[in-house]
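Regression check, 6-O-phosphono-beta-D-fructofuranose case 520:
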Amino acid sequence: MSLPKIDPTTTRSWSDLSRHFESIKDEKMQDWFRNDPGRAERMSVNWKEFYLDYSKNRITDETVDLLIKLAEEVGLKTAINAQFSGEIINETEQRAVLHTALRDFNSIKPEVAASLEKIRSFANRLESGEWKGATGKPITDVVNIGIGGSDLGPDMVCEALRYYRNHLNVHFISNVDGDHVMESLKGLDRETTLFIIVSKTFTTQETLTNAHTVRRWFLEACEEQDVASHFVAVSTNLEAVSSFGIASENIFPMWDWVGGRFSLWSAVGLSVACAVGYDNFESLLKGAHGMDKHFQHTPFSENIPVLLALLSVWYNNFFESESECIVPYSQYLNKLVAYLQQGIMESNGKSTDRNGNRIDYQTGTIVWGSTGTNAQHAFFQLIHQGTKLIPVDFICFSESLYGKTDHQNKLLANCFAQTEALLQGTYGSEAENSFKIFDGNKPTNTILIERLTPKSLGSLIAMYEHKLFVQGIVWNIFSYDQWGVELGKKLAKNTLGAIEAGNPASASNSSTRSLLNKTL
Ligand code: F6P
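Current build output:
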């Protein structure tokens, strides 16, 4: 069974949605709310510790029905089943897509169970001090060396779960920028630092360059035989890892059926398990699994990722919104947007459909944002009064972790007030002058979660993973490959050749030649 390959614009529901759009595009949510007291309750979903309020969207009940019909017509149910049953749905790379299997404790794959056991044992030994550095001292600092999916997920989760962290300090080296590497090494003690080199392919230029630089830095004061106590690796490419000099018992495997940007649930999350302890890491996985089950088994009309995806399609393809914004009202989630940018934009930035044809409709959304309330004092002006329609996801938690009531009240008040201001604007009241007019009618989703825990964070991340998958299915694209990043990698190699040879003339483009002439 492969994925359905239906051009969404040829479906009956797409034509119906186009007609429906024309009839409601100028209507005001403010009026809908005034005339329909049951709207908020009807357009919301309660699921475990999650509450999604999607009532503040430019939609009517008919819009939701038509969007769900669209999902049915493009074969979403078949696609979900194909993914979860391990079909080769990443056709262009001939791979299954089974990051969900990494968190399915009910029917766990033997290799996943073995990997989790290895993660558990390693994280416990590090945390308890049983794992010693070469000179017999316990480890105090863990440094993750990786980029893209081998960096963003673990970094984001370690930050998000700061409250649950143990005494181990975690650091992330990602950029091939040598200044970043040297700044990261500053203050680290070789005797008590452990490096985790994370690269699915173990061929990524940035990660290998950084790993070699760090290894040389380590060997400035340590011996070759000390490497075993200070370097471990996570990869599918066992051969390349062992030729780097890492002993086989220090290699944590991963598999080609786990895409890089969906890999934090595998041993790529080793730094997370070290930082918050294995039990919390397992809770993160279980939270994600809960969302997997919700996504797999809930009717589309109550299915959080499906509803979010369809709303996004509505704005992207009918309102022609250029981007969407994500604003978590929790400073712990300050790296969430950067993480989601890779997940969403690397997955759905495609212009060839699943039949291999060029696409003539909009696909991948541009995703951006940052934490509230900070964002209110930065870019919210443009969302309120600018000329662009930007749907926003507001994410917030009912309870704070330290119980600072005064702060929590203000945080939540701001979050809810912003969604209301975006909805209502100055509509129905006299604005003092034209500069103070707010049109309102700006769409938002509010995702209210009881508390930030490893479990709820796992569910939240999985929610966005499934959302982007649904969007890809509707747009008839392959969400799980990323050919677009390959050309840049190839050209970087050619350009590096020109730089190393001190030969700008060998660059193939005149602009590059001029730039090289300025720098060489
Ligand atoms: O940028 C492309 C990419 O392949 C990402 O998809 C991936 O997460 C990243 O590079 C890192 O790859 P690797 O883990 O193989 O080093």
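Comparison notes: The CA atoms of residues 201 and 237 lie 6 Å apart. The two ends are 54 Å apart (CA to CA). No diff flagged against the previous build.
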